[in-house]
Amino acid sequence: MRAHRPTPQLADHLEGLYRAFPFGRSVADDPIAAVRPLARDRRSAEVAALCAAILAVGNTTAIRAAVRRLGDLADQDLGRFVADLPGAAQRRALAGFRHRWIRGDQLAYLAGVLGRYYAEHDSLESAFLAGFDAGGFAGGVDALARTLRGPSGDGRRAPPGYRRLFPSPLDSARSPCKRLTLLVRWLARDRYPDLGLWRRVPTGELRIPLDLHVHWIAYHLGLTARRSRSWAAVEEVTEALRRIDPLDPTRFDFVLCHTGISGDCPKTRDPTVCGPCLVRPDCLMWRGRTVAA
Ligand code: SF4
What we know:
2 domains; 293 residues; binds iron/sulfur cluster
């Protein structure tokens, strides 16, 4: 367990990594690039962000292509698509869509759920706050997950696998609930590259969206000793980052994630790539070693 404590220098090294990070290169590669241009229209941005968070599985090229394809099928206006189109038209438009295991019939059902929700509410922030105010961040994700699971506006049954798209930390401690945690970071955090459209969720309360890249590097920097991704690991990594930046612990998420996605981190002890890595002294792959060794 001791080996998994962060080094005393990690805060400085992470700050260095954050300051030197080529955000321009990586934002263009991230699904948020498809959402940022919609930020002036909160509903369109929310719907696009939710779809992008759902589709954020696999490599970034395939994710960007899937998000683009979905935008094309919705005539570049997902806000109008969910609010104004009848269910049959939504189902027809998305019938052939597929990205990995996520299917068009599931997204058409989601469109029906959102259409029903937006008929009575301005923003999904209200759904999150309904749980957050009483139960903190996990309560907020739970309330948001329950809202998104349905039912849809026309009383249809949810298609197979639909409800599993929205796990809740209160139902399944084994899930890191990455989709909704990422969605809330995008919408609530107000510093680049995030959108800051939700104003009532304090940045210091956000939790880390623990994808495979972030988990790998968090484990190797000693931010968690947990080998598998779970809600407990989310809390542990967030708490460790909160000790470095209490007001904005998830600001390191983008940098850790894209250090992995970009290939800046080979996830193995490679002297050529690891040599210039600013967190090499803190990385379990290298502690007690020099590059020459
Ligand atoms: S030292 Fe190498 S393996 Fe460790 S985080 Fe840096 S690039 Fe990744």
